[in-house]
Structure formats: structure tokens, C-alpha cells
Amino acid sequence: MTATPGLGTPRLASPDLLRSVFRRHAAGVAVITAQRGDTPVGFTATSLASVSAEPPLLSFGIGTRASSWPAISEAGHVGVHILGEHQRELAATFARSGADRFGPGTGWSTGPEGVPVLDGVLAWLVCRVVARVPAGDHRIVLAELVAGDPEGVGHPLVYHQGGFHGLRD
């Protein structure tokens, strides 16, 4: 590898390089939820993307070693929640391995299609899972919108440099 003037010395592709670059990419923060039997499950995602307007589709990624993967791998429907800057602790709870994600301090109710819907979010959707696409050690989940509410109050939470932050002008 040779240095590129003004850009530094390139590094060979690796998981560390990918993580290092994406720490510099600010991303919106969402929590994905599903129901597995009597147990609600969920995780924090920064990989949420709009895919298509007709039909209305979105995507998100999940690692196949994630504790929520078994539920997401079987779920017919998922909840997608856009978090506000006032929900840093909620984002951290759903990102933390072994946390009681639906315990005290997490307000939620059963929404359309039996999906857990979180309280106080900026917006939420319930979506029908239409595909789970293999992508290395992850799966890209494609889901079609069924119902939702875009009317929450506040400013979005973003993930940048390994932490949760409010959006600034």
C-alpha cells in the first residue's frame, strides 16, 4: 500500500478498519422490537434505512450472534422505533448485553400485530418481515410497513464516535 497525498496511509480491509470508519459516520438510533412467545425482545440499531416507497419497505441489520436474533429470525412482524435525544439511557439499555430491556424504566405496550411498541419515541412503525438476507455474520432484514405513528415530540438521537448524542444545528 502506498500513501495517498492528503489522505494518509491506507490500511488493509479488516473488521477494525470498518468499525473505525463507521465510528465517524453519524447515524440515527432506532430500537427494533419483536415478540417471541410471551417474551418481548429488542435491540438498538443504527443500520436502519428506507428502501422503497412503493411498496413502503425498510431494512436493518442484526448480527446472527445477537441475543435478539433467534426472535427476529422467526418473527412475522417487528417494531421499529426512532429514538429522541431524551432517550440516551433507553438506547444504552437496548444495546447492553444481558440487560432487562423491558423491565422497570422501559414504558411499552402491545401494539398492532402483537409487537411491543415503546413509549415516548419520536416515531414508530410496525412492519411485516418480508426477507432476511445473509450478509457475512449479519442478516439484513427487509420489512414492509403495516402501521405507525410519526407524531412524537423532540429531536433525534444520533450515534457517533461510540456514543449517543443529540442532534445539533
Briefly, what is this?
This protein is mainly beta and 169 residues long.
List keywords for this structure.
single chain, 169 residues, mainly beta, Pnp Oxidase, Chain A, seven-stranded antiparallel β-sheet, three-stranded antiparallel β-sheet, 14% helix
List the helices and strands and how they pair.
Layout: H1 15-23, E1 27-28, E2 30-36, E3 39-45, E4 49-52, E5 57-63, H2 69-74, E6 77-82, H3 88-95, E7 108-110, E8 116-118, E9 123-135, E10 138-149, E11 157-160, E12 163-166
Antiparallel strand pairs: 1-11, 2-3, 2-6, 4-5, 5-10, 6-9, 7-8, 9-10, 11-12
CATH level-3 fold name: Pnp Oxidase, Chain A
CATH architecture call = Roll
What helical percentage do the residues reach?
Answer: 10-25%
Oligomer class: single chain
Q: What is the CATH class name?
A: Mainly Beta
The coarse silhouette is globular
Uncertain segments: none
Q: How many domains in all? A: 1
* Helix and strand run: HEEEEEHEHEEEEEE
User: What's the mean pLDDT score?
Assistant: 94
Nearest-angstrom radius of gyration?
17 Å
GO molecular function: FMN binding; riboflavin reductase (NADPH) activity
Domain Flavin reductase like: 22-166
Protein name: Flavin reductase family protein
GO biological process, one term: pyrimidine nucleobase catabolic process
Explain the overall architecture.
The protein is mostly beta strands and 169 residues long. It has one domain: Pnp Oxidase, Chain A, CATH 2.30.110. The protein has 3 helices and 12 strands. The strands form 3 sheets. It has a 7-stranded antiparallel β-sheet. Strands 1-11-12 form a 3-stranded antiparallel β-sheet, with helices on one face. The termini are far apart. The mean pLDDT is 94.
